[in-house]
Design a protein that fits this description.
The protein is of the alpha/beta class. It has two domains: 130 residues, Up-down Bundle (Four Helix Bundle (Hemerythrin (Met), subunit A)); 229 residues, Translation initiation factor eif-2b, domain 2 (Rossmann fold). It is built from 13 helices and 18 strands. A hairpin with a 7-residue loop joins strand 3 and strand 4. The chain binds 5-S-methyl-1-O-phosphono-5-thio-D-ribulose. The site of 5-S-methyl-1-O-phosphono-5-thio-D-ribulose has 17 residues, from helix 2 and strand 11.
Amino acid sequence: MNTAGESFRTIWLSPDDPAIVQIIDQRRLPHDFVIADLGTWRDGASAITNMAVRGAPLIGATAAWSLYLASIQSGGAAGPVIEAADKLMATRPTAVNLRWAIERMLGVMAKLSDHDDLIGRLRAEAQAICDEDVEISRGIGEHGLPLLEAIAKRKDGETVNVLTHCNAGSLATINWGTATAPVYLAQEKGIDVHVWVDETRPRNQGSQLTAWELAQNNVPHTLIVDNAGGHLMQHGMVDICITGTDRTTRSGDVANKIGTYLKALAAAANNIPFYVALPSTTIDWTIHDGLAEIPIEQRDPREVSHVYGRVGGNTVETLTVGSDTAISNYAFDVTPASLVTGLITECGVCEASEVGLAALFPDLARQAND
Ligand code: MRU
């Protein structure tokens, strides 16, 4: 991801101090680009809970680095790291990458003997998780690109209009993003691509993050309110929807930011392809039925009752509802596989089904059956 001409990942080990992990504080975007230091595993846990970092792959990576920090704090003793893992597991419930990354780190620990360098091994594993995620996102881009190329060809080079929801971009991963990776590659290839960016209430990941990162990378885009997508689709202004997912069941149901399901319904009603881009780390092979089995996070009602905005040089919070109104704040919804045209993964594009996923990831499917 580029910003001000510099290339950034979303999380990295400080070049000056190996006991500090650095993140982009996403709560401050788009107005301020602030790098924050994580010095303890609790800093990492808070960054996940308060959404300084967010997006399924980045949540997992932050948990991994937090366990590395816990090992420094414990002087290389395993017990406190395992306790930290328990607490980190509870920071956000829907994105399965959190569990995946923590289990991977604990798996490394389980293989170590007393004399092994716990701190060094956890550092190497957290770094590997991040490096692999970059490659995975790039792979998603390469497999998603032909979908955009085919539309460009069909439209004889006219603009390809992609609609996306929430932020499944570089900021949600380590780099490249999932839903945005095919877009970035299409742009590199000279395809005329334009993105409709859903605002994504209540936290506005679309207007504050996706729009920002597309602008930083010079991708033409237009911000729309969450309810505009159906209208655009009815008028032939959307060629393809691509979203991310926080958890995909083995049968291809996807949980993503609240509102994704409504976009999938509108896409189906208007014969517009609805694709979901995901790394294999987002597949939960232990469950089949997304509606029944994916835990849906409910967040602070304040995210609904208040909006953040810029006044002068300051960010201010404004109350938008009367005090007698009850509020619920469901953060995710589940789109059933039947509404998903296809899943774009690092290993290829498949049907949203158990057969489709198992064909792309036979080893993972087999392990889950054992
Ligand atoms: O609540 P958030 O901002 O963590 O939600 C993020 C999303 O819903 C993304 O679309 C999803 O994590 C996919 S990210 C590659």
